[in-house]
């Protein structure tokens, strides 16, 4: 009968590294083609002209230029319109 009984649960085991999300290049900054503009989970910001989205919703610059942010209304699948920030390279 040598075994441990009633060990309980571990509560202090959540120590994950941050994901380093957010805006990497801000409005008015000059960027080169392929640079990361926004790292995000889901499409909180949408890609405008001069940008493209990779598989993990990261927005990249498709050409050289300056970054601009615009407020646009997009339609959801329910028909409701919501404001989203559009990232552009001009």
Could you outline the blueprint of secondary structure elements for this entry?
Blueprint (H helix, E strand, L loop, with lengths): L21 E2 L6 E2 L4 E4 L5 E3 L3 E3 L5 E3 L3 E11 L5 E9 L1
Parallel strand pairs: 4-8
Antiparallel strand pairs: 1-3, 2-7, 3-6, 5-6, 7-8
Say what oligomer this is: single chain
How much helicity do the residues have?
under 10%
| Rg value | 21 Å
The overall average pLDDT, rounded, is: 92
Order of helices and strands, N to C? Answer: EEEEEEEE
Which sheet architecture does the biggest sheet show?
Answer: 4 strands, antiparallel
How far is the first residue's CA from the last residue's CA? 74 Å
Low-confidence segments, given as residue ranges, are none
* Count of beta strands: 8
Shape: elongated
Number of helices: 0
What portion of the residues fall into strands of 2 or more residues? 35-45%
Strand order of the largest sheet: 1-3-6-5
Query: What structural class do helix, strand and pairing data support?
Result: mainly beta
């Amino acid at each position: 009968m040598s075994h441990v009984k009633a060990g309980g649960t571990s509560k202090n085991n959540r120590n994950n590294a941050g994901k380093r999300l957010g805006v990497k290049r801000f409005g008015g900054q000059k960027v080169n083609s392929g640079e990361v503009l926004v790292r995000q989970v889901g499409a909180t910001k949408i890609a405008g002209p001069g940008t493209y989205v990779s598989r993990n919703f990261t927005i990249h610059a498709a050409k050289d230029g300056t970054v601009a942010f615009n407020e646009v209304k997009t339609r959801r699948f329910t028909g409701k319109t919501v404001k989203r920030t559009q990232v552009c390279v001009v």
